[in-house]
Amino acid sequence: MALFIMILRKMINNKWLELSLLFGLVLSVALTSTMPIYTNAILQRLLIQELQQLQTSSSQYPGIYWLSANLVPEDKQKNEKISETDEFLNKASHRFGLPVQQLVRERSTERYGLTPAEPDKVDIHIQRSADFSAIDGMEEHIRLVDGRLPEKEPVNGVYEALVVKEALTELGMVLNTVFTIQDENMKQPVYVKPVGVFDRKDYTDLFWYNIPSSYKNSFLINFDLFEKEFTAGSKLTIQSSYWYLALDYSKMSLVSTNDFIDAHRTITAHMEKRYETHNTNAPALQTLGAYYVKEANLRLMLWSLNVPVMLMLAFYLYMVANLITERQKTEIAVLRSRGASRLQIIFSYVVEGLVLGTIAFFIGPYFGAFLTKLLGASSGFLEFVQRAKLEVELNRDAFLYGLIAVASSLVMTLIPVFLAMRVTIVGQKQQSARQEKSSFWHKYFIDVMLIGIALYGLNNYKTRIKELLSLGLKSGDLKVDPLLFLIPALFILGMGLFILRFYPWFMRLVFKVGRRWWPPSLYSTLIQVSRSTIQYQFIMVFLIITIATGLFSASATRTINKNTGDKIHYSAGADITMQIRWENDAPPAILTGLMEESEEESADSNADSDAPHKTQYTEPSFLPFTQLNGVEHAAKVFNKKDAIYTRGKTTENIQLMGIESKQFGETAWMRDRLLDHHINDYLNLIARNPSAVLISKSMAEEYGLKPGDTMTLGWEGVEGAQFTVYGVIDYWPSWNPNPGVNDTVTTTTKQGSTTKIKKPNLVIGQLPYIQNNLALEPYEVWLKLKPEASSQAVYQAIVDHGYEIESLRDAKQELIKSIKDPFQMAINGVMTLGFLISIFICFFGFLLYWVLSLFARTLQFGILRAMGISFFQLILMLIGEQILISGAAILIGILTGNLASHLFVPLFELSFDPKTQVPPFKVTFDPRDQVRLYWIVTMMIAIGLGVLGSFVSRIRIHQAVKLGED
Q1: Is the dihedral of CA 443, 448, 454, 457 positive or negative?
Q2: Using alpha carbons only, what angle is made at residue 136 by residues 194 and 208, rounded to the nearest 5 degrees?
């Protein structure tokens, strides 16, 4: 107890240092705990979104869990198996971890032939067959369309049943007609009479797995009657049994996904044990299966993104612990000389660390939950948007990660204590009188090793990029390699330390060059900085890592976001592209196959018949599109994927695009400097001649075409027209010049067969000329929206004008969807959060270090004042030190950050598939990001200097100079 009280008193005596250490521990725990919290929160959001998307795309409720079992007639125990499954599923339905909205049982018999018992009421020549079915609880979920509800018992030996309206047509019957079912395996005939027609009461009711029309060959009777007469009584052979669960998927969480999968496995084992043939339909299972891979990848991503901040925290904790230990080195040496063992001294610091670590452990995860909400609002580096907040929930993993952070931090803070215990009281006095010649990382060349590792990784990645581009390999969609963030962090740290290795020499050189002219204040400043560089290296490394990491993070996030956005805008062509339905005289699609078959059969006998029917289209009015609210420009864009190019004996399929130059230039999106000249120059070029066209570079190279050459273009069923080449382009809005996976051509010669890549070919011409000389066919409508326009409002306006949209692509909505990608959000959010945390750590470390440094040099300041240095000159000395230390660190950070960005940001090209990444990958540097970063750092330094000035003004320097002081 006495030891504990002594430790508490020691902590109180160093309260500011202890509070600074506690601040670092809380940040460490908070940052570490954000990883599981954020992973769970973002995957939870994505899980619900994908399940909702599944419902939209498949029109099937994602919470469905449907089972079927085919029953073998020879199985004597099938009734017991059905009862066991009924009871089992009634209990197992609660194992999914989700609210059960419906639990439905359904039975059906074999299909039997039907014979009218009253031949005068129906046509006896129609072949009829139907089964008996029963759905438990169906009566509460139907409405009668005609007739009445059947009785729950046979009436005069006749089973009364409900049917759907499609059954009346399918079976050729009317209500209240009695049918006989007679089979050689039946002891006596069964009679059935339809007495009512039903439909669903509510079309959104989750009770129904099948739509009513699927029962067009079924008689539905009361479930209890079915169980008594057919299941237990065996009057008819039961063929199938169905069980259907509707679960509330909106309550699904990452925890309940494990329950869902475990329940599925348990149910599958139950079904396999009892039934030879059974089926399961659970749409959510496939979505859930992919989440374990996504979770692992996202956790790895978060760890790699947080490496720079972890380094900052490690430096901060070590620095604060070292400051505490430095102030207590004499005390440690005295204790050692008085007989205290190393274990006792270590134990006292362990207890101190445990007290602070316990506080951090209980505060950190909650602060981490707050930080996670900031992650969800980030749309770019230091950019935040109003977005639905993440459903943040503290879990066991968050506290487990926090515990690991506390343990790691405790080890980090004990390192200076271990080093201090190796020194005796005499050695401690000797060290305090001497200056260290080099730091640990410089002595053992840690900086050179870090740079070597980073450059080795850089070389490997560059080799991978060359192979990827030369061999046409596929890297996949956006899937960022975590090492792309780890390697630059090592490079930034190594390069910062490497430059600091030469900084003392530089300061000595500056001192020697002007030693005859320096004023006393600057003379003292240069001596202090050049001789104490090792003392200031921690704070300098702080600033270097903060600035360099911020610059790299800004460039990396901006590059990834910009290339993702450019890809979406380019492939779409404009803000909105759509295909409007044109009125035409084409036969209905259902008749097309029959017409083709009849044409083939009569081809020989009618060789001289007329040409195939040519579809005639009626062009809808285009003017309303240009007048829609929110639309800035609109353009007609005709795309013919299978046009035919003819020149001499050469005939090939190409893509033909027809445009109107002025409208297209105003509407289409194109990245600057992607073409040799501005896109408008090319549009103006072909606007002079109606038959002028632009061709792709691939087409010019393959067929040896050049400006001035003529060609014939057309398509099947259309006579070609003459066009003249006016220019060659590499890229064009919405056109991908890269070959696809299967775009190969095999040519056979005397030397053998060779396979070469077939690149896409494009021709851009004037739409009026194409329509007048070839044919009038449907074109796409491209729209450029005003900045504040709503896509939904534009959709509705188009529908209100009476247009029928056949296909649509909205680049704005696709961009929003890409920003919500969990990996994209992780990059934007974690880099922003990491930088802000780095700023706070650097700010507190900056203040702490300089305040303690000032107090330690109080005697020196007193002597300088006694020598005649004014207070103003003293302030200038401090400002000079700040410029030479903090200013130099910021400059080194800027140089290191820009160098790291130029070297490593281009490696993010590996994250994009070169076949689909059009326009090509481009490294982006936005000056606004750097200005924003510099403002934040400048404010930090200015506030720090203000606080330091306040401390200096309160120091009573005249009291420092007194008799008997050294």
Answers
A1: negative
A2: 85
Q: Other C-beta atoms within 10 Å of 116: how many?
A: 18
Residues 741-798: pLDDT tens digits? 555 555 555 555 566 677 889 999 999 999 999 999 999 999 999 988 888 899 999 9
| The two three-digit tokens of residue 658, written as one number | 């027809």
ω into 119 cis (within 30 of 0)? no
- In this predicted model, what pLDDT tens digit does every residue of 317-343 receive, in sequence order? 777 777 777 777 777 777 777 777 777
The β-bridge partners of 650 are: 647
Provide Rg for the chain, Cα atoms.
Answer: 39
Q: What is the 3-state secondary structure (H, E, C) of 615-652?
A: CCEECCCCHHHHCCCCEEEEEEEEEEEEEEEEECCEEE
Eight-state DSSP code of residue 235: S
Q: What angle do CA 448, 324, 26 make, to 5 degrees?
A: 80
CB atoms within 10 A of CB 671: 17
**pLDDT tens digit string along 256-271?**
888 888 999 999 999 9
> The tokens 């201090």 sit on which residue?
420
Give residue 593's pLDDT.
Answer: 45
Tokens standing for 285?
């299972």
More confidently predicted of 158 and 24: 158
Q: 113 pairs with which residues across the strands? A: 129
End-to-end Cα distance, the chain: 39
Give kind and range of the element (H or E) at residue 907.
none
Helices (H), 741-806: 767-773, 791-800
What's the pLDDT at 764? 96
pTM of the full structure? 0.72
Identify any residues that bridge with 643 across adjacent strands, giving them in sequence order. 654
**How much helix, strand and coil, in percent to the nearest 5, is found in the chain?**
55, 15, 25
679 bridge partner residues? none
Which secondary-structure segment (H or E) carries 178? none
Return the residue matching tokens 């973002």.
Answer: 42
Decide if 675 contacts 725 (C-beta within 8 A). no
What is the distance between the alpha carbons of residues 67 and 326, in angstroms, rounded to a whole number? 71
Q: Two tokens at 662?
A: 């002025």
Q: Which residue has the tokens 């230091």?
A: 382
Return the number of other C-beta atoms located less than 10 Å from residue 361's C-beta: 20
Cβ-based neighbour number of residue 80 at 10 Å: 11
Residue 415 phi/psi, 5-degree rounding, is: -60, -45
Going from the C-alpha of 326 to that of each of 332, 419, 428, 498, 856, the distances in angstroms are: 10, 11, 10, 26, 11
DSSP state of 276: S
* Least confident window among 71-75, 174-178, 791-795, 906-910: 906-910
For 342-347, the CB contacts below 8 A with 24+ separation are 342/421, 345/417, 345/421, 346/414, 346/417, 346/418, 346/421, 347/3
Q: Are 694 and 764 in contact (CB under 8 A)?
A: yes
Q: What is the DSSP letter of 231?
A: I
